[in-house]
Amino acid sequence: MSSGWKRGVDVASWVLLAILVLLAALLILSAFNIGVRAYVVSSGSMSPAIHTGDLVFSHKSGNYKKGDIITFIDSRNKYVSHRIYRVEKKDGKTTYTTKGDANNAPDGSPVFPGNVMGKVVFHIPLLGIPIAFFHTKIGLVVLIVGIGAILVWMVLSSGDPSKKKETTG
User: Fold this and answer.
1) What are the residues facing 82 on neighbouring strands?
2) Eight-state DSSP code of residue 165
């Protein structure tokens, strides 16, 4: 293998390893309660602001207003990220009416503060696709085997350092 080709493969291996480690770190961090949680967007109801396959990060604040995009647990026990369409206060209790930006009408069920996971603070386009895959059993195996294979490749491709030729400048 030529040195230029080998260098390109080495760089690609490091980049792929870094991506896999980042994805693994995101998976691990999302399992802990650090104030920010990641959610994979599974529908286009928030287009054009947020698309299917994006990864949204929500932060629990307790202070939500009209126009905020929040992640909440809906009546089917699914995570949903929609914009607050209306805030209602009745008898000292607050409820939120939400609506997906791409939807024609507001959602049918009110969202109670206890069901709000947080306000969407940022999102990363398309990163939810591999995250969703790595949350499956086969995806986790692929992630672990992939990281292991890259590490083995990097060790084996580096060769024996004692056999490398010294160059003088």
Assistant:
1) 70
2) P
The whole-model pTM stands at 0.72
Q: Is residue 95 part of a domain?
A: yes
- Do 50 and 69 form a contact (C-beta atoms < 8 A)? yes
Query: What is the chain's Cα-based Rg?
Result: 23
Kindly report, residue by residue over 21-38, the tens digit of the pLDDT: 776 776 666 666 677 888
Centre a 10 Å sphere on the Cβ of residue 65 and count the other Cβ atoms it contains. 9
The overall average pLDDT reported for the chain is 86
In Å, how far are 29, 30, 56, 66 from 69, measured between CA atoms? 22, 19, 10, 9
**166: in domain:** no
Range of the domain at 26: 1-33+127-158
